[in-house]
Amino acid sequence: SHQEESILKLSEKNNVVLATGTGSGKTESFLFPIIDHLIHEIENKTHHNEVYALILYPMNALVNDQLKRIREYLADFPEITFGRYIGETESKYRDALAKHRDRYNQDPLLNELISRDQMKETPPNILITNYSMLEFLLLRPNDSNLFNGNSWKYIVLDEAHIYDGAVGQECSLLIKRLKDRVFRKHTQ
To answer: Which pTM does this prediction carry?
Structure first.
């Protein structure tokens, strides 16, 4: 029932805070509305090679774990691109491909962007990272292409209970800077 309620609230353009136990399907509660939105964009021919959704995890282990599920859901939607941009993401595609093949014994999906160069050239529709890397991405001019699009719609903070104390304050300010960077051009 929490998935259904969350999906309905998101479809009505509401913000959602979902607190439920481990393994209860929180990922589907935010990922399905994101995928649904992108499918509508594709059907309406308004889809762009820009970031629509940022999924922020507190640590790389969670990024890597959730990436498996995201791959499963997006395997049948080649028009929807996604990419993991963390500290260990290789800069060059050739290096990233070798690392991916070594780690997973297969090639990446056609819609999975695996190198920094790929994501800088053509930003993924779903950008997956952690808050430390997001800080760097916002500061570095070479990564500005990720924030230049007009399609930003979703910001997901998974495992939000971790963002308390000083880390919570820092993340709050980071999200404010992100929103200012992304949405500032819409209000000028």
So the answer is: 0.89
Q: Partners of 126 in the beta sheet?
A: 53, 82
Query: Both tokens of residue 70?
Result: 């995201």
CA angle 133, 139, 143 (to 5 degrees): 75
The DSSP secondary structure of 124-150, one letter per residue, reads -SEEEEEHHHHHHHHH-GGGGGGG--S
Q: Which residue has the tokens 């282990």?
A: 61
Q: Which of 179, 94, 92, 82 has its CA nearest to residue 138?
A: 179
Q: List the strands of the sheet with 112-113, edge to edge.
A: 112-113, 82-84, 126-130, 53-57, 154-157
Beta bridge partners of 154: 53
**Helices (H), ranges, the chain:** 2-11, 26-43, 60-74, 93-104, 116-121, 131-139, 165-187
pLDDT digits (tens, 9 = 90+) for 94-119: 999 999 999 999 999 999 999 999 99
